[in-house]
Amino acid sequence: MAALDRMEVRGRARPRLSPPHPWRPLTEAELRFVWPVLEALCAHEVGRPSRHDLLSRFEACLEAACTRLPWRQVETRSAPGMKGDTLHPNFRRWTERRLWMALLLKIGREKPGLPALEYFLCSAFRRAWRGQGMRGVLVARATGLMSALRAPFSRFPDPGLSARCHAGFLSPGLASLLGWPPEVQGSFLRASRALFRLFSGTRRIRRCWEPA
User: What are the residues facing 75 on neighbouring strands?
Assistant: First the structure.
């Protein structure tokens, strides 16, 4: 996780939606793609052993994310007999270890030509959005994968745009504010308030904004 903290997530790729794919078990190529990250972040966890292996639990998490059902209603074919209430702590623990962030960065930057896996990972990332925080928004922006968030990018805070506007508009304007005529001061302050609303995003994310 320390390596992920140092991982560069600035910049942004061209935004795009990931075409929906119905759930199916991962192919060998998809498993080869995710395994190095999965092994590094999750293979050496300490705790009570599970009767389902790591890959089965990982696929079950992806399958649950694609169903969009509440965890208490989740039943997966990837880990038979493992109820959603048991799978959810596993999903939440991996969210805290930033597994979904690492995998989204990898697939967004390497573009391996695995569209179904991309959609499955976006679904898992979106389901974990409460645990991702602002860093999750930055990761989604850096990859351009709009399907990873529960609303369009414009509905979320934009720290990059905020920093540029502060450096090029707000800070110089505040330094010169007292020397301007009152009407110019008023126009500057109104523009500043509008920019702050733009930077901060939408307070409430509506369910209808969620991508397919």
Answer: 83
Under a CB-based contact definition with an 8 Å cutoff, are residues 35 and 59 in contact?
Answer: no
Closest by alpha carbon to 79, among 103, 61, 99? Answer: 61
Nearest to 49 by CA among 81, 90, 9: 90
Q: What are the b/e assignments for 151-172, b being 16+ CB within 10 Å?
A: beeeebebeeebeebeeeebee
Question: DSSP state, 80?
Answer: T
Which of 132, 149, 166 is the last residue before a domain boundary? Answer: 149
Q: Does residue 141 share a domain with residue 94?
A: yes
**pLDDT (0 to 100) of residue 209:** 87
The two structure tokens encoding residue 143: 């990859």
Residue carrying the six token digits 């509440």:
70
- CA 149 to CA 141: how far, in whole Å? 9
- pTM, rounded to two decimals: 0.82
Q: What does pLDDT average to over the chain?
A: 88
Q: Do 63 and 127 fall within a single domain?
A: yes
pLDDT tens sequence across 109-153: 999 999 999 999 999 999 998 888 889 999 999 999 999 999 988
Residue 16: DSSP 8-state: B
